[in-house]
Amino acid sequence: MTRDTATKAELRARVREARAAIPEADRRSAAIRDAAGALGLTGVVGARGALAYCAMPEELDPAPLLLRLSQAGTRIAYPRACGPGALTLHWGDACELKPGYCGLLEPPAGSEEASLDEIGLVLVPGVAFDEECHRLGMGGGFYDRLLATLPPTTLKLALAFDEQIVDAVPCEGHDVLVDAVVTPTRVFRRGKPATGRP
Prior knowledge:
There is one protein chain. The protein has one domain: NagB/RpiA/CoA transferase-like (Rossmann fold), CATH 3.40.50. It is of the alpha/beta class. It is globular. The mean pLDDT is 88. Helices cover 25% and strands 22% of the residues. The longest helix has 18 residues, at 3-20. The strands form 3 sheets. The chain has an 8-stranded mixed sheet with strand order 3-2-1-6-9-10-11-12. Strands 4-5 form a two-stranded antiparallel ribbon.
């Protein structure tokens, strides 16, 4: 295990513990505030298609944002694991998702596939982020591979608890930055100073 890998593993464990300790009422409030913050970003409302994910129990739930996007006419897709580190994208509804890879909810086999050029917004899960929009994932490499193939116009957005923002995320050459990270109190945009939220 390299020093960077060890550092990532330690940071991943520390932030996941902090994230898991957030009370349920605070989780719901954070998800609603994150949705409101995300809707104010250019490229979110009106995205031709959005790639979403179904939150694990300790993750911030993107459902409030997805509801607003769906009501505004954005079609929602979800990822499906199709091999080591590889995802396919499928149009669907959260209520249709079934347990798949590692117990994560994903579209069932045979669901209508979505292509990358139909997706204008990708909600990117992650364990930790820093103010420069570096991301630390779960370690499987699924999203790093996916993000590296996206057209440059696709908005890569992360929703996070404030507890997930760290001073610096250890980076490697294959790591892909997101364009923005929204928390209940701040918005971080790549290459711009962080802004507070009312």
